[in-house]
Specification:
With about 220 residues, this protein is mainly β. The chain has no helices and 14 strands. An 8-stranded antiparallel β-barrel has the order 1-2-3-6-7-8-9-14. The two termini are about 15 Å apart.
């Protein structure tokens, strides 16, 4: 992403990277500002919806975090990079990085209810191919918010006087919260809304991996 120094002609670099975060794949475009030794990064991200999950019968059963509206694809990110290995004459550098993301999107997934069985006191139901039959319900949350805070390492390699490539990796806590939810009963096409919101603290350790490059306004410094 990234210029390597804090000289006046090289205060700002423009960056683009892509990778896998807790919310899924996204592309980020931003600015890196050299504030002396630490580097501040900030910009916008574009969320790429996750591919469906499929069961053994090739039925889609989960959509996870998906944007259903154009505006829900966008979010913000920011952070700080602290040099660990850098200096005059080096073509590479290593930074400790703190990375934060925030965005809004929807959650849509499916769950299956078996037809018949001991819970109903009736025989289990099978189709003509011998598969047990289920009723599929849709679980949908609109206007969910997602945030992730991560600690990691950023490796950069100097390609030219203005260009760097980078690899970032790290882990940290991620959370999702939402304002409303609903269930759709596909058996009789009824929608059951559940008022109120919810909060999901997904994981303390949500890993990420990002690849990208940065173009410095000024000439890259070795100091």
């Amino acid at each position: 992403m990234y210029s390597l120094c804090g000289h006046a002609q090289n205060k700002i670099a423009f960056s683009i990277d892509a990778g896998q975060m807790h919310s899924g794949k996204n592309i980020r475009i931003g600015v890196l500002y050299n504030a002396g030794k630490p580097q501040l990064k900030f910009g916008v991200k574009y969320h790429l919806n996750n591919a469906n999950d499929y069961d053994s019968r090739n039925y889609a059963f989960m959509y996870r975090l998906n944007a259903s509206k154009f505006g829900e694809h966008f979010g913000l990110y920011g952070g700080v990079n602290i040099p660990i290995i850098s200096g005059k004459g080096r073509s590479y550098s290593l930074y400790a990085t703190i990375d934060a993301e925030y965005g809004r999107m929807g959650i849509k997934s499916f769950w299956f209810e078996a037809l018949g069985g001991s819970q109903y006191g009736t025989p289990e139901v099978y189709d003509s191919s011998g598969f047990r039959m289920f009723r599929r319900h849709t679980f949908q949350v609109k206007h969910a918010s997602h945030a992730q805070l991560s600690l990691g390492l950023s490796f950069r390699n100097k390609v030219s006087d203005r260009l760097n490539i980078m690899i970032d990796a790290g882990t940290g806590p991620a959370a999702v919260w939402f304002s409303n939810q609903s269930f759709i009963d596909t058996y009789n096409s009824n929608r059951v809304s559940v008022p109120g919101g919810g909060f999901i603290f997904d994981s303390i350790f949500s890993p990420y991996l990002r690849l990208g490059f940065g173009l410095s306004i000024g000439k890259l410094s070795d100091s």
